[in-house]
């Protein structure tokens, strides 16, 4: 692991300073801890979504292999429905 201190771009540094100054965070470390925690939760949520999609895809492939497919007449609408399901939180 690199022990060198990290530096933020000026635009992000200004944002951090603004957030601390406004009282939204006690200090820089509190903001960074919150940001990393949120990123970690998002990554875990994204992985859970990917696992659900993989399971649904595997189930669908198995059904197709058994000849249980469906006929789709409006491919765009069908994909829109899939994307809606995939992006639910």
Automatic annotation (TrEMBL):
Q: Which InterPro entries match?
A: ParD, ParD_sf, Ribbon_hlx_hlx
**Family annotation (SUPFAM superfamilies):** Ribbon-helix-helix
What Pfam families does UniProt report for this protein, alphabetically? ParD_antitoxin (PF03693)
From the record, give the transmembrane residue ranges.
none
Q: Does the keyword Membrane apply?
A: no
Q: What is the protein name for this chain?
A: Type II toxin-antitoxin system ParD family antitoxin
Name the UniProt key words of this record, in alphabetical order: Toxin-antitoxin system
